[in-house]
């Protein structure tokens, strides 16, 4: 996984709270706090997680199988979700997508 730097503004009190978590040793950096906060946000907001995966799938940044995995859905339910959103499902011939996914895991 590659990393990219992003900056954004937060209230000073929130920054101070994040610094307390880092200074106490609970997290190693502000970035770790923010990554954990975003993962928690997505866990508590599955619709947003699905929306993200749909957009990544539509833009061909991730495969169908990877999108379903990130959405925390089985493949058939994810396909149904795409159909309900009016999104065409593109599959590669001969199970190439599945082969690629298996190879990535090995």
Automatic annotation (TrEMBL):
Give the Ribbon-helix-helix protein CopG domain ranges. Answer: 5-43
Question: What InterPro entries does the database record attribute to this sequence?
Answer: Arc_rbn_hlx_hlx, CopG, Ribbon_hlx_hlx, UPF0175
Entry's transmembrane regions: none
What does the record list as GO biological process? regulation of DNA-templated transcription
Q: Identify the species of origin.
A: Candidatus Nanohalobium constans
Name the domain of life.
Answer: Archaea
- The protein in question is named Transcriptional regulator
């Amino acid at each position: 996984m590659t990393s990219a730097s992003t900056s954004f503004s937060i209230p000073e009190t929130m920054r101070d709270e994040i610094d307390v978590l880092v200074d106490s040793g609970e997290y190693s950096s502000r970035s770790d706090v923010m990554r954990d906060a975003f993962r928690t946000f997505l866990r508590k907001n599955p619709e947003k997680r699905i929306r993200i995966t749909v957009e990544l799938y539509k833009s061909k940044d991730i495969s169908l199988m990877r999108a379903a995995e990130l959405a925390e859905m089985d493949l058939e339910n994810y396909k149904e979700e795409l159909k309900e959103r009016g999104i065409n499902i593109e599959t590669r011939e001969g199970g190439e997508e599945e082969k690629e996914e298996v190879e990535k895991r090995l």
